[in-house]
Each structure stands twice: as C-alpha cells, then as structure tokens.
Amino acid sequence: MKNSVLPFFVAVSLTFSCISTAQENRVDTLQFSVESNLLVFEGSLNGVKTKFAFDTGAGLGVLNTTQVAESNVTKTGNKNIRDSNDESKTMSNGKIESMQIGSYRFSNVESVIFDMPFLTCQQLYLLGGDVINQLNWKFDFERQQAYVSKTPFSPSADMSSMSVYFVKNRHFTDIQIGDKTLKKCLIDFGYVGTLEASKKEPALKAPLKIELKQQRVIETNTISLGLTSIAVGLNMRTFFIDSIQLGSLSVPHVKVNIKDDVEKKIGLAFFRDQFSMVILNNSEHMYWLQPRTLVVEPTLGYDADYYLIDGKLQLVGKNLRATSTSSSLTIGQEIKSVNGRTAASFSDICDFIAWRITQAKLDKLVIETLNGEQLTIPKTTF
User: Fold this and answer.
1) Which residue in 104, 111, 146, 167 is deepest, having the highest Cβ count within 10 Å?
2) Residue 81: what pLDDT?
3) 60 with 79, same domain?
4) What φ, ψ does residue 71 adopt, rounded to 5°?
C-alpha cells in the first residue's frame, strides 16, 4: 500500500506539469486591421466583445463611457493623466473584472475613462502596456495576423534583434544615427507616424542641417490629436534621413518629423511599412524585426489639412512653401467644404472622423473657401 502511493503522486504531478506547460506554450491567432492607422483586433471586456487598439506608448488602457456602461465596468476613483500634447487632465478610473485576448484572461485591470473622439467614435478600447507586457506578440503585417503567447517566439534566421526596456509599462529603445545615439526613444504603436523628435535633439541636428542646405526639408503647420486635447498650427519640419541603426539592423531612408517640443518616438507606420514580421518578446525585453522585400515608401500629407472644430470646418495644417497650393489659406480659417462636404452635412464628429479616414486615401482634396474659391490640394512632394 505504501509503495503504491509515491508512484501515484509522481504520475499526478507529472500530469499537472504537462498541462501547465501546454497552457504556457499555447499560441493564439488574432486577425488585425490597420485601416484606421491603429493596430486593431478583437478582445472582450467583462464578456462583451470589444475592439482593442494596441498601444505600447500607453502605460494604462483607456475606456470610453459607453464601454463602461455596456461592460459594467466599476469606477474606482480618479487619476491625473498627461497626453501627447503635454496637456494634463484628471480622469476617472475603472476596474475591468475580466479582460480576454484570444484564450488569455486578465483580472481586475485598471484603466482610465475618457471620451477621446477618435477612439470613442470607433468604439476602441486602448490597450496599454500593463496588459501588453504580460504576453509575447508576433505581428505578420502581410497577412494581418497577430500571434500571442506566454512563451517567447523563436525568430527566423533573417530577423534582427532590437533590445527594449520598459518605463512605467511603456516601451523604449536607443537608436543609433551616425555617431550619435537617440536615447530613450518611445516605441509607440499608438502614434500613426514614423519617427518624431524635438528640434533640440542632438542626434538629429547634423542630419537636419545637411538636408536644409540641400533644400530637402518641408516646413509645415500641422495638427496634433492628443488623448485630451487638440493642438492646431504646430510648426513641423519633415525630411528623410539616410539610415538609422536599430540594434544590429540598419534601416535606410527613414522619414523624420521635427517639432518644437515633443517626446521622441517611432510609430506604427515605421514598423508596418519597413517590416513584414515583428516579434515583441516582452518577457525577454527583445524585439525581432524581419525587413520587407519591398519596403512601403512613406507618404507625405496634403498641402492643407482640415478638421471639424466647434461645428465648423477649419484649416488646421498647411505646407509653408510660398509655391504651395495652400499658400492663400491661413491656419484657423473657416472653409465652406472639402470634397463637396460642408460642416452641416456631418451628423456629428463621429460621422466626420469616419469620412476623413476615407478621404486620406485620395490623391488630392478640393477645398472651397467661404468666398467660393475652389482649390485643388495634392499630396505634398519635395
């Protein structure tokens, strides 16, 4: 009797060990989209299916008030949050009892509550680093499939490594530019652009000086949509840098946006356009990058930009070249219509945002001013 007990417990122990290992090694597959310039896939909040926007630049998730009501999220207090425009605001906190991504479940997830129109209109929950960092991720940008696991993914032989570090759940890395280092650069999947930095950044002063001398810099006024604020008419310089070094990989011809005072970051467009596969082995603090065979060339915006503010269509950005098609327009100017749509034709801000996303795919805009002048606005070129 005594001799049979030990083998029984050993067998049970081994069985549970195998089950535990299998659960840790499981890989779930998710379909994602980048149609809205955010990486979006489906998950659930308290059992309610919800679209998640993947954001390594956010330490915490962001709920909107509709999601709070529909998913029965419990409000737990307030938190002070500073957005990408350096605007600070006090927001409510919410506790999500159960969150699910694939077959992985997370309990008692704290998130802030705020109705940012771009997220709220698309009913997106912003998934932050507090949850992202608990899983390893592999993104196939050609098939638009994401794979998630507790176990690190094995890179293929043609992938290059890039070490990362986390600060308050946000992802950072160091980028080599010539003989200078762009230190503590935020890896921000919630930023739609490529590479952005302050004009004070030492690593970019020499490349910018060279491009200015060659007259290969475009100066614009632009709009910035933060979580809690809209900044209009910000000065920005855009140019292409010969190459940057990410770990062991040299990436050529990278678009750079320089602003007066901004957190340096590389965004979703950089990874989407440069790489066919990206692995985020968060448990090892390591990314793996597989370059595309054919790189998607970065595009520039239109010579003029617009937004619906206080019920009016307003000019919020423009190319500052004297020969630009937007030279007769001024920042803040009210305009009658864009591609035939007037401000009154939109039922609300959500209707406008959905339409604006579709217009960004066109080669040109037609802007009509209040005095009836029609201007054809193409994409900016060097």
Assistant:
1) 111
2) 77
3) yes
4) -100, 5
**What confidence score (pLDDT) does residue 141 get?**
98
What count of other Cβ atoms lies within 10 Å of the Cβ of residue 316?
A: 24
Q: What is the pLDDT of residue 328?
A: 97
23, 57, 151, 280, 286 from 154: Cα distances, Å? 17, 24, 9, 11, 11
Q: Tell me, what CATH number does 351's domain have?
A: 2.30.42
Give the per-residue pLDDT at 307.
97
Q: What's residue 84's pLDDT?
A: 65
In order of 87, 209, 239, the CA distances from 200 in angstroms are 20, 13, 16
Q: Residue 269 sits in a domain of what CATH number? A: 2.40.70.10
- State the pairing for strand pair 195-198/249-259: parallel
Q: What is the reported pLDDT for 23?
A: 56
pLDDT tens digit string along 27-83? 999 999 999 999 999 999 999 999 999 999 999 999 999 999 999 999 998 888 777
Please check whether residues 41 and 123 belong to one and the same domain: yes
| Domain region containing 67 | 28-149
Residues of the chain below pLDDT 50: 1-2, 4-6, 8-10, 12, 14-21
- Which are the contacts of 151, defined by CB distance < 8 A and separation ≥ 6? 24, 25, 27, 136, 283
Q: What is the pTM of this model?
A: 0.90
Q: Are residues 265 and 324 in the same domain?
A: no
The C-alpha atoms of residue 43 and residue 41 are separated, in whole angstroms, by 7
Residue 44 lies in a domain: yes
In a 13 Å sphere around the CA of 111, the CA atoms on its Cβ side amount to: 29
CA distance 81 to 108: 20
Cα–Cα dist 273/369, whole Å: 35
What burial class does residue 381 get, using C-beta atoms within 10 Å of its C-beta: 0-12 exposed, 13-18 middle, 19+ buried?
Answer: exposed
**pLDDT score, position 191:** 95
Which candidate, 91, 128, 86, places its Cα nearest to that of 112? 91
Clarify whether residues 196 and 142 are in a common domain.
no
Locate all alpha helices (DSSP H) within the chain, ordered by sequence: 2-25, 65-70, 117-121, 129-132, 202-213, 268-274, 349-359
Q: Is the dihedral of CA 17, 20, 25, 26 positive or negative?
A: positive
pLDDT at 90: 86
Domain end among 88, 122, 149: 149
Domain end point (choices 258, 291, 324): 291
